[in-house]
Design a protein that fits this description.
Helix content of chain B: 40-55%
CATH superfamily of the largest domain in chain B: Nitrile hydratase alpha /Thiocyanate hydrolase gamma
Oligomer: heterodimer
Strand order of the largest sheet of chain B: 1-4
Order of helices and strands of chain A: EEHEHEE
Number of helices of chain B: 11
Largest interface: A-B, 26 and 23 residues
Number of strands of chain A: 5
CATH class of the largest domain in chain B: Alpha Beta
Number of helices of chain A: 2
Strand content of chain B: 5-15%
CATH topology of the largest domain in chain B: Nitrile Hydratase, Chain A
Radius of gyration of chain A: 15 Å
Distance between the termini of chain B: 55 Å
CATH architecture of the largest domain in chain B: Alpha-Beta Complex
Structural class of chain A: mainly beta
Shape of chain B: globular
């Protein structure tokens, strides 16, 4: 794919949207931690497009850039045995191609 | 095989248990160390940069430290307009201090009476080096990285930081392009203090979120 320096995928989500992290285990340089895959969260911040690290790791351009989000998770949803209060949360930066609407 | 038995034994005798000193680990180079040296020497030979320039870059990195971050926090406490800019766009706001975030962005998270923020990088050791310098060893340890996301309150307790249950603990896993700095709660009894005086209350650990700011 030929892509200009400003090429970026269109943002699909906005703050407040409910999302689910893809439960996939592809090989390569993946910045989505294993522990968060398959979990539900809410978009806390839309951070704009960033070059895709899964491509950058192999000396490719990383373009089109992927929108990056800060996704907020409830600790008790992530860890069923979580011992803290129900309002404790966890924010993780996740690229758009790892998120599905939920 | 006999390695474990090179030291004085006092098992069950209540006497001191003397272990041998930890062996030096700098007597041979690892694969990536050899690769780094080879690459560095090639780049110097090809005049991409000089050994002096590498040293300057190392010196600049070593010169960055928590004092820089403490100044940023102190100004945010003293100057509401700066605080608003810092929270809206940390990368731009810290340019006031000559800090260039390079290819990353600074995302400042504010502690309030309702929320306590804690920063970790579970995947590696992402850290706001341009603001705080090099991370402490424990920040890079497997124990901190795995436990901070799963049992943050237990980790905080081990740092002597008791966050009341009615206050949300919000952990930030630094997985991508943001670098996180915690803006601690301003301690009581500091009204009218100068930025310089305030900065002395701000520790590195408070800006990672494992501690509160010092109290006067």
């Amino acid at each position: 794919m030929s892509a200009g320096a400003n090429a970026a995928f269109k943002a699909r989500f906005k703050p407040g949207d409910r999302v689910r992290v893809r439960k996939a285990y592809p090989p390569g340089h993946i910045r989505t931690p294993f522990y968060i895959r398959g979990h539900h969260g809410v978009i806390a911040h839309a951070l704009g497009p960033f070059a895709n690290p899964e491509e950058l790791a192999y000396a490719r351009s990383g373009l089109p850039a992927q929108p990056l989000y800060r996704v907020r998770f409830e600790q008790r949803e992530v860890w069923p045995d979580y011992r803290g209060p129900a309002h404790d949360t966890l924010d993780v930066e996740i690229f758009q191609h790892w998120l599905d609407p939920a | 095989m006999s390695r474990d038995h090179d030291h004085d034994h006092a098992h069950g005798h209540g006497r001191p248990h003397r272990h041998p000193p930890r062996p030096d680990s700098d007597d041979r180079l690892g694969y990536y160390q050899v690769m780094e040296i080879a690459l560095r020497e090639l780049l110097i030979e090809k005049r991409v940069f000089s050994a002096v320039e590498i040293n300057r870059a190392i010196e600049a990195m070593d010169a960055r430290g928590e004092a820089l971050g403490a100044k940023v926090v102190a100004r945010a406490w003293a100057d509401p307009a700066f605080k608003a800019r810092l929270l809206a766009d940390g990368t731009e706001a810290v340019r006031d201090f000559g800090i260039d975030m390079g290819t990353t962005r600074l995302f400042v998270v504010e502690n309030t009476p309702a929320v306590h923020n804690l920063v970790v990088c579970t995947l590696c050791s992402c850290y706001p080096r341009m603001v705080l310098g090099l991370p402490p060893d424990w920040y890079k340890s497997r124990a901190y990285r795995s436990r901070a996301v799963k049992e943050p309150r237990a980790v905080l307790r081990e740092f002597g930081t008791i966050v009341p249950d009615d206050r949300e603990v919000r952990v930030h896993d630094s997985t991508a392009d943001m670098r996180y700095l915690v803006l601690p709660l301003r301690p009581k009894g500091t009204d009218g203090w100068s930025e310089e005086k305030l900065a002395a209350l701000v520790s590195r650990d408070a800006m990672i979120g494992v501690a509160f700011a010092r109290t006067p």
